[in-house]
Amino acid sequence: MSFSFNFQSLQKSLEKTTKSLTSTLQENLGNLPSANEVTSSFQSNMNHIGKEVSNLKPILKRTQRSLQEKFGSISDISELPQEYKDLEKQVDDLQGFYKKMIKATQQYEIESYDYPPNVRESLNDYTKIINEKFTGLSQATTTSEAEAVLLAPRKEQYPKTFAHQFSKVLKSSREAFLSKKTTGNDAEETDPTESESALSKALLLISNSQYKLGDERLEEDKLIISEFNNKITNILRVDFVKADKLRRKVETARLNFDTVRSEIKELQKGDETVEVPETQSKKLENCEDELVNATELAVEAMKELIKPGEPLNLLTIFSKIQLNYHKNVTEELSSLVDSLTTLPADTKDGEEE
Questions:
Q1: What phi and psi, each to the nearest 5 degrees, are found at residue 202?
Q2: For 2-52, what is each residue's pLDDT tens digit?
Q3: Is 203 within a domain?
Q4: How many structural domains is the chain composed of?
Q5: Global pTM exceeds 0.85
Q6: 19 in any annotated domain
Q7: What is the pLDDT of residues 183-214, one digit of tens each?
Q8: How many other CB atoms sit within 10 Å of the CB of residue 294?
Q9: Which ranges of the sequence are coiled-coil (predicted)?
Q10: In terms of residue numbers, what domain contains 87?
């Protein structure tokens, strides 16, 4: 086997590789930022940091002054217009009124507010539910039927209002009276309602009437929630929040103004003849303009907020809803009383005794 070594070919290959590496290195070096670019970038970042620090200075000064005012170490505080202070008090009073109202009327959002929970009754209800589910499951033959039993709502479920629950009691009492009439040998031949007593008839009438009264109460609740509670809540969350933001802007502008004014006083050191630097004078002028503008916007918003039209309208709506409820209740009870007075008194049972 012969082996030949071509030195010239190897040399050319090395030169080609060297050129390629040199070219790649130059390209990479060319992509690196220059010293000027690095310096410029660093300076730009430092300027950005400097701006952020500069933006924090007014906030820190304002916070410091606010704390000093609260702790009483500073008494030289700019006085806001009396009109503004009067409006602030009226807004606070109106807000307090709305909060007290909504706190009281939120009971309409609780279905059982006129029927407090009863432990014994709750246990009886749970027992009935369990018995109903067990009975249904015992009759189920497939998985889907069992699932339907578990998910099915209760039969004759009454809302947790006094009127509905009273209606339920009256109805069950009537059914108990009627069930006694079905006992005996001729139970299947006699319709218990045909020989229904005046008492059982009265129980049915009152039960139906009470159920209607319960529905009327739920309708009243729904209207008060939508037309009164929700509107007051919206006013508190939107209108008062907007006014509060504007008032905070006034306070911020006032603190900025007093901070600059205090700095100028420190420069003058009690001598008002000392010339104030133009930058400080301009700064004070700008702060004063901001305070005036912020105050005007807040005054306008507060005047709009305290107009008596909206609260008066809400109270009128509330009263109308109550009036309609009591009117319907009165009509229903009047009709019930008329029906009860026309029921003939039972004499049959008394004669048999």
A1: -65, -40
A2: 444 455 666 667 777 777 777 776 666 566 666 666 566 656 665 655 555
A3: no
A4: 2
A5: no
A6: no
A7: 554 545 555 556 688 999 999 999 999 999 99
A8: 20
A9: 243-304
A10: 83-114+212-344
